Amino acid sequence: MAKRAAPEVNAGSMADIAFLLLIFFLVTTTIETDSGINRKLPPMEESEEDVIIKQKNIFTVLLNGRDQLLVEDELMELKNLRKAAVEFLDNGGDGTCDYCKGKKDPSSSDNPDKAIISLKNERETTYKTYIAVQNELVAAYNQLRENRAQALYGKSFAEMEANYKDVNWPGNKEKLKEQIEQIKIEYPQKLSEVQ
Amino acid sequence: MSKFKKKKSGDMPAVNTASLPDIVFMLLFFFMVATVMRQNTLMIENNLPFADQVEKLDKKDLVMYIYAGKPSANYKQYGNEARIQLNDKFADVNDIAAFIASERASKREELIPFLTTALKVDSEANMGLIGDIKQELRKVNALKINYTTKKGSVFGRN
After folding, report:
1. Whose CA is closest to B91, among B113, B65, B109?
2. Which candidate among B31, B71, B88, B116 keeps its CA 20 to 30 Å from the CA of A171?
3. Mind listing the UniProt keywords for this protein, alphabetically (chain B) (predicted)?
4. Which residue of B26, B28, B120, B124 to mutate against A (max A Cβ within 10 Å)?
5. Contact flag B138-A44 (C-beta cutoff 8 Å)
């Protein structure tokens, strides 16, 4: 008996079907990775003895309900905040900080390790202003760390951190971690928020 | 009459489209893999603020999302005040603790310390609400937070 050939399936419309699916996925796709400012909240601890901090080591930033910025009891524009914060942090008033490039003004902060930025906001402050201020303060720290990394290792701090996170980076991770830690110790992020 | 007729020289050969499905499938698979479907339907306006000192929030499975903002046009009956949204429904500040607990319960135990809370808050919201959220998060010891923002300059677009 003659073998009957199976009829071939017409695949002409496969492309159409695939196109349909493709367009669906094209439309629904959002290739997004969220990004934002990472912060750590202070843990709840009731019994904490008061630490006495010298007034000159605190950089007060106050945001009022009308989104006005009061820095060290003076009105300030948002665009000047970063510079003011850098000046405060990098001041090195008591001379123990040999890498600071500030003015060594004795009435400002002693040491980046002691300098604290205190941020206070009111309930009516809008979120975007708050984020803008947070952003500027983080930028001040980043700028200082960046400069320090350039001076110490001739590399950018952001690049160092990116390399540290990168699994495929070929260099010595232990050493890199040490270097990053060193910079973080020299310019610790001391940003406190008043509730 | 010869069997082998010469082809007319002016005729252009048709482009072979046999590999078209393959190409389309390739694209299709790319988009299928890259697609992230939205997890939550937003019931609030969520116009994130701009910032430029941002860090990427990778490891999506280790992120808990808290949304806040003004109810959007379809949900006007909930008022004009900024509200919190957790998992497709409006919530109160007191619900955050339960939300965090349930999120933690759904993760493996060893991953719990790495959980981050992403606050996706509308730029017009008041800090009072955020302060309350943060206070709640401190109570349940969920201390790692991330203010999710769009990338851009903080100036100019205020």
Report:
1. B65
2. B116
3. Cell membrane, Membrane, Protein transport, Transmembrane, Transmembrane helix, Transport
4. B28
5. yes
- Residue B32 in any domain: the answer is no
Does residue A37 sit at the B interface (CB-CB below 8 Å)?
Answer: yes
Domain, as residue range, for A130: 55-194
Whole domain around residue B59: which residue ranges?
50-151
Cα(A14)–Cα(A8) distance, integer angstroms: 14
Please indicate, yes or no, if residue A136 is contained in any of the structural domains: yes
Q: Is residue A69 situated within a structural domain? A: yes
Q: Cβ atoms within 10 A of the Cβ of A176, count? A: 17
Q: Is residue B67 situated within a structural domain? A: yes
In a domain, B105, yes or no: yes
Residue A7 covered by a domain: no
Overall number of domains in chain A: 1
The predicted pLDDT at position B39 comes to: 65
Taking contacts as CB-CB distances below 8 angstroms, the residues of chain B near A26 are: 31
Q: What is the CATH number of the domain that holds B87?
A: 3.30.420.270
Rounded to an integer, what is the distance from CA B25 to the centroid of its chain? 26
Cβ–Cβ gap B141/A44 under 8 Å = yes
Whether A72 is covered by a domain: the verdict is: yes
**Predicted pLDDT at B9:** 61
ipTM field? 0.73
How many angstroms separate the most distant Cα atoms in chain A?
A: 108
**Predicted confidence (pLDDT) per residue in A175-194, tens digit:** 888 888 888 888 888 888 87
- The pTM score is 0.76
Q: Which is nearest to A102 in space by CA: A113, A115, A86?
A: A86
pLDDT of residue B158: 44
| Burial class of residue B73, CB neighbours in 10 A (0-12, 13-18, 19+) | exposed
Q: B9 by DSSP, 3-state: which?
A: coil
Split into its structural domains, chain B has a count of: 1
Question: Using the beta-carbon criterion (under 8 Å), do A37 and B55 form an inter-chain contact?
Answer: yes
Task: Calculate how close chain A gets to B89, using CA atoms only, in Å.
Answer: 21
Buried b (16+ CB within 10 A) or exposed e, A108-139: bbbbbebbbbebebeeebbbbbbbbbbbbbbb
Query: Distances from the Cα of B77 to the Cαs of A114, A127, B72, B97, B123, in angstroms?
Result: 50, 23, 10, 26, 21
Ranges in chain A, pLDDT < 50: none
